[in-house]
Amino acid sequence: MRIATISQRLCLISGGGAIDVERASSGRFGSDPAAVYPRWQEFTDWAASATLPEPAPFAAEALGSPSPSPRQVFGIGFNYSEHAAETGFARPEIAPPVFTKFPSCITGPCGEIALPPGGHTDWEIELVVVVGRTAAHVRSRAAWDYVAGLSVGQDVSERRLQMAGTPPQFNLGKSYPGFGPVGPWLVTPDEFANPDDLELGCAINGVQMQKGRTRDLIFTVGDLIEHLSAVAPLLPGDLIFTGTPSGVGLGRNPQRWLSPGDVLTSYVEGIGEMRHTFVTSGPG
Ligand code: ZN
């Protein structure tokens, strides 16, 4: 099953079109996408058995994040060996580095993203996990039972602010408005032959920058849910940005940063593609 936010309304995606959930369920489920995650099991049971109307076409520009207002957004650092190496950090062995992207940075899968002035803004394609059940002290082997689905994400990062300070605190440099695009929709884990092995990548102006596979994650989706939920209960609708493979601008020689007019396309196999254009931020 695939769900999306279209014009701020919860929709099912079917055959390239959309079905409005509030109308198709005669109001049993509301239009607010955030409200469905606390009722995820009930919702998936309904969607599997309901008689649904014909899907209607929709404009990609109307898509928002499938979880537009998560209460918690977890980011994972250096979760692919080659990315840890390109940034000069040690490969994490015992526990993954964890930071947050403040929820106000979450946005949809297409449109414009403003570059902070004078910044060194970088790209990070990532698999994003959307939580579907409150998860506290969950073991890795049971972790997929707590996942509503998977989506494509970009952990957009302003490197000067991210690396400022001793020790560096990543959170603010990764939380400018628009720095957490997610989409184009959520795909439930049962749709993948192996949800732990998906190709992901991104390109700038059509030139490939990153390409990897999630089987190379040092800490798997299950490991991350075990590690995070041992401390903070994961809540329905929460997002986990699972880390990026190599090929970011910071690790290039010479280094490269996003410029006004750059078009960034980002994909994960079996989910779909996002497309963003970077622009200068307005005066002030
Ligand atoms: Zn990242």
Give a verbal description of the structure:
This protein is mainly beta. It folds into two domains: 2-58, no CATH class; 68-280, Fumarylacetoacetase-like, C-terminal domain (Fumarylacetoacetate hydrolase, domain 2, Alpha-Beta Complex). Helices cover 12% and strands 32% of the residues. Strands 1, 2, 3, 4, 5, 6, 7, 10, 11, 13 and 16 form an eleven-stranded mixed sheet that branches. Strands 8-18-17-14-15 form a five-stranded mixed sheet, with no helix packed on it. A two-stranded antiparallel sheet has the order 9-12. The mean pLDDT is 96. It binds zinc ion (ZN). Residues 75, 124, 126, 155, 241, 243-244 line the site of zinc ion.
List the keywords:
Fumarylacetoacetate hydrolase, domain 2; binds zinc ion; eleven-stranded mixed β-sheet; five-stranded mixed β-sheet; 32% strand; 284 residues
